[in-house]
Design a protein that fits this description.
One of its GO terms (molecular function) is oxidoreductase activity, acting on the CH-CH group of donors, NAD or NADP as acceptor. The structure is a single chain. The chain is an alpha/beta fold. It is built from 14 helices and 16 strands. The strands form three sheets. It has an eight-stranded mixed sheet, sandwiched between helices. A hairpin with a 5-residue loop joins strand 11 and strand 12. Helix 1 runs parallel beside helix 7, helix 8 runs parallel beside helix 11 and helix 11 crosses helix 12.
Length: 451
């Protein structure tokens, strides 16, 4: 049977269904459709499906033209109907895995997906989970549910785990050329998963269990979380010591071995780094193991927006201004450069913290032009008109999109707080006050600008 299924994959007779058409699911569905596989994109969000069906992509990495080509070619079908899954040979789950308010894994999206699959899947289906989760999820939730429904592992269904590695806005590494890990609950599942993903991914790394694959994703992002927390703490220490953290990092980076560069900032964002380590911490606690590194890193990273808001107060005070009533402009609200992704963005937290202190806060981000605030109101970006920047008591640089002209921001701002060393190579460099988590730029006179 394994040989038959593998041949079916190689001949592109394997029908694919993707559950969840967000940052992970839609690019993956497009990849399979472009390679000639009959692909069904399933999502419970009717508005999303209606928009995508009209050829309007809501994912920045997928252009409308690419989406329309796949739709018009007949290889990509979009639906909100669960019964459409019944013809699929492979069902790939790409749903969110958030945390609850008590910082525990929220498995409800995966559970709903699995419940839908077991009611609609045909015998012989390959189920692959891509959502980030704790080790054991594939075996404990997917396999258990399918077996309870009467499916037999190895004949009626196969299961693997292949963690998504999507980096929104990355123009170099996208779905096809990012190496992909896959592990199966048994040898046959691993072989089928490896064969399937190899049709659309340039390099597939097969591991011996779903638990290894699940752990690999958490290890990747926990590693980053801990190192970011460390450099954030070093930035806070350098602030106390009066040392420039940025110059220190550059000096350390000249060592050709044994050092990996990480940089501080106003906080961490995105769906992965702020959340994934807590899945691992939760799993560790279930085994009576307390991971101090993970918990401490989480504490430090989530403290940074508060530290940044305190720095704003200090900066304004130094220039004889109170935060209460001051006008503040946040530049770049998306959590990363050249992306429209606002998920867990520290800019959103800083916006709310400054408002609570009485500041009149606005933001400018052409990539992410609106968001819903804590009160449920919609906040809109001001136009990218540098002449307006001078109207604000303080301009805070959070994220450097390519669309921003840093020199123009410098020329047209009264006072700048640089949270990521964005002004490093600009003419403002000599006006920096070093030793801060965010670098404060002194007011600029018109005479200095002309020079």
């Amino acid at each position: 049977m394994t040989i038959i299924l593998k041949e079916k994959i190689l001949k592109k007779k394997f029908k694919i269904a993707i559950m969840g058409l967000g940052y992970v699911g839609l690019p993956l569905a497009i990849s399979f459709a472009k390679k000639g596989f009959e692909t069904t994109g399933y999502d419970i969000n009717i508005k999303k499906i209606n928009g995508l069906s009209q050829g309007i992509s809501d994912i920045e990495d997928i252009s409308n033209d690419v989406l329309r080509t796949c739709l018009e070619g007949g290889k990509l079908q979009l639906t909100t109907t669960p019964t459409a899954l019944s013809s699929a040979d492979a069902i790939i789950i790409c749903v969110p895995t958030p945390l609850t308010e008590s910082m525990e894994p929220d498995m409800s999206y995966i559970q709903v997906a699995v419940d839908t699959i077991k009611k609609n899947a045909k015998k012989g289906v390959l189920i692959s989970l891509e959502s980030t989760t704790y080790p054991g999820t594939t075996r404990e939730i997917i396999c258990t549910a399918m077996e309870e429904e009467g499916f037999t592992l190895g004949t009626d269904f196969f299961a693997c785990y292949s963690p998504e590695r999507v980096d929104p806005g990355n123009k170099i590494f996208q779905t096809e050329n990012t190496p992909k890990v896959v592990g199966g609950v048994d040898h046959v599942s691993k072989e089928l998963g490896e064969t399937l993903y190899s049709q659309v991914i340039h390099e597939v790394i097969a591991v011996n269990s779903t638990e290894v694959a699940e752990m690999s994703k958490l290890l990747e992002n926990t590693f980053r979380s801990i190192n970011i927390a460390f450099i954030n703490e070093m930035a806070l220490l350098c602030e106390k010591l009066g040392i420039d953290i940025w110059e220190t990092i550059e000096a350390s980076s000249t060592k050709p071995f044994g050092f990996m560069k990480f940089t501080p900032g106003p906080g961490i964002g995105g769906h992965c780094i702020p959340l994934d380590p807590m899945y691992l911490s939760w799993k560790a606690k279930s085994k009576n193991f307390y991971s101090r590194f993970i918990e401490l890193a989480h504490e430090i990273n989530h403290l940074m927006p508060d530290k940044m808001s305190e720095h704003v107060v200090e900066t304004l005070n130094q220039h004889k201004k109170s935060i209460n009533g001051s006008s503040v402009l946040l530049v770049g609200m998306a959590y990363k450069e050249n992306s429209n992704d606002l998920r867990e963005s520290p800019g959103l937290q800083i916006f709310e913290l400054l408002r609570k202190r009485g500041a009149n806060v606005a933001f400018c981000d052409p990539k992410a032009p609106q968001f819903v605030d804590e009160q449920g109101g919609i906040q809109y970006s001001i136009p990218l008109d540098y002449s307006q920047f001078n109207e604000y008591d303080l301009v805070i640089l959070l994220t450097k999109h390519d669309v921003f002209d840093i020199d123009e921001i410098g020329k047209n701002s009264q006072l700048i707080l640089d949270t990521k060393d964005i002004l490093k190579n600009s003419f403002e460099d000599k006006k920096r006050t070093y030793g801060k988590v965010g670098n404060q730029i002194k007011p600029i006179s018109k005479e200095e600008v002309q020079i």
